[in-house]
Every structure is written in C-alpha cells, then in structure tokens.
Specification:
2 domains, Immunoglobulin-like, about 350 residues, 6 helices, about 10% helix, 23 strands, 5-stranded mixed beta sheet, globular, Sulfite Oxidase, Chain A, domain 2, mainly beta, 5-stranded antiparallel beta sheet
Length: about 350
Amino acid sequence: MIVHGEEPFDAETGLAALAEGPVTATDAFYVRSHGAVPEIDSAAWRLRVLGVVERELELSLTTLREAFREREVTATLQCAGNRRAGLIAIRDIPGEAPWGPGATGTATWTGIALADVLALAGPLPEAAHVGFESADLCPEAQPPQRFGGSIPLDKARRPEVLLAWGMNGEPLAPVHGAPLRVVVPGYIGARSVKWLERIEVRSRPWRGYFQHVAYRLLPEDGTPGPGAGMPLGLVALNADVLAPADGQTVAAGPVEVRGYAFAGGERHVARVDVSLDGGASWSQAELLEDLGRWAWRHWRITVDLVPGDHEILVRAWDSSAATQPEDEAALWNPKGYVNNARPRIRVRAAAA
C-alpha cells in the first residue's frame, strides 16, 4: 500500500497488487477516510431509517441478515481523486493528497439490497433522494461533522445498490466500514458511505459538507464553497497502465502491457486501444475477464519494442462511444478531481 495519510488513514493500492487479478485483494484495497476509524459494538449497533417515509425503522445487524434476502454484487469503487498526481504535476493543488492510479479497486460485496429496506420504510411521494450518514466524525469539515452524502432515489431502488457486511467472502474489516457500509456501483467512492448508522429519505440532495462543499468539480478559477461547482456522482470513463511501470527498463522485443479500464455509471467498457507513436496509429487490446456490468475490465496487449526509449499511450472507449480526453492540462481543477485523461508511460527497451 502507498500511504498518503496516517490519521485519518488514506492509502492506495500498488500497481503490482492491482495487476494480480480482476478482483482486488482485501488487504490491498484502497482506503479513503475523512476521520478516525470509529469503534463500533456490532451487537449494540442499530441502523436508523427516517425522513419522508411512512414508517421509521431501527434495525439491528441480526435483523438485516435474517429479514432480508442476501445478495452479492461484484463492483469497482473509485475515489474521485484517483490519478490526482497527474494534475498536481501540472500545477500544485495544496492540501490534497497526490493519489496515483491506485485509488480504485474491485471487490465482491455481500449484503442486502438497499431497495428492500426502503420498501419496508415506504418513501412518501415527495421523496427524491436517499442520504447516508456515517459514524465517523470528520474534523476537516466546517463545522466538524459526520461523513455523509446522498444519491437519487431512483438509483437507491436499483438492485445493485447494497448495504454490505461482507467483502470478498469475509466480514467487512473496520477500515472498510464494518459493521455495515453502502456500496453504490457506478458512483464515486464517496457515495459508498462506510460505518453506516443513518439512512434519511429526503426531498432534496444531502446538504452536508461532503456533498455541498467537497466532492464538487470546480472551474479552473473556482473557489470551494457551499454549492460551488458541480456535484460529483457518476464515475467518468477511466483507464490506466498497470505493467510495465512508468520509467521501467524492459528487454527489447515482445513486451506485454496490462492495465484496467472502468466506464462508471450505466456504461461498460467497449474497447481499449494502445499506441506507440503518440496516437498516430492504434492497436486494439484484449479485454480480459468480464465480472459483470458494475466492474472494470482488465486488458492486455503484446507490443514489439526495439531498443531505445518508448512512450505507450492508452485510450478506453465506453458503450456510449465516448473516449478519454487527450490531455491532463485541460482537466486541471482546484480540487484535483476526475483526472480521466489518456494515460501514458515511458519505458526503455534494452538490447539483450
């Protein structure tokens, strides 16, 4: 793990760990926190469901397990600040961690459908959003508050959105949100709230700091503030190279290039192309195992490198026929979010 902060704990997955397979090992899965990991007694813990509903609920973990059908979803989560380091290289972004391409990962999540709990509560006609509040207190917020955010009610009612207690076949670890977290496939990781304690059905989006101030895309000359910029939700199409590493020396001749691509939202990865000549020509990579509509695709291609220096450029395409922006400079923003520019690495091929 590449640690960006100890308290709160922030760490991204190393490229070698991401390259091991399409499902990311739990102990290597990235961690993004805004407060200390809370200490929660699972036996005493209760989930409260309130707001514009017919009936408020208070549910124990045992009740959630016994009263609702268990479900499983394989989904990729990705931090909104993934690949921020590329934007920092263009212009400094004070106060923000220099996340590389490892603030993302794919896991198989086990729990129950949020939709089933909402159906029991009975959203009223004015309900339009579902908010989530965590147990962790976040001192960076002004004023300090618990982490929270919301998603549209239509998304919350989709079967893929889980209240999860398991990850890759094991109980959730505290650092990943035990005893219960939200998993919102296709959305930025900030909406998959960990250490869930409260669900609030609302007529308007969440007004807390982490949706109304943070996690918003500002124009280049923008200043963070309540309601400034655009709220982030759906993940943008993105891709990166996992091997070889940028700056690595490889043996001249056939070289396997591997990476990931993730479409986000309701889209899926349709194609990945690789260029060795700055984008003048492209070769199509092989898409590897398909884990379902909510997971990334790993890809690979073998290229022939003559001795010397090379730049490897990648672009992904999604099912809406969209591809990645060409240049990171055009994406720079004051918080360093949504860097989905075409990745490029430089390698040196050495003669045997």
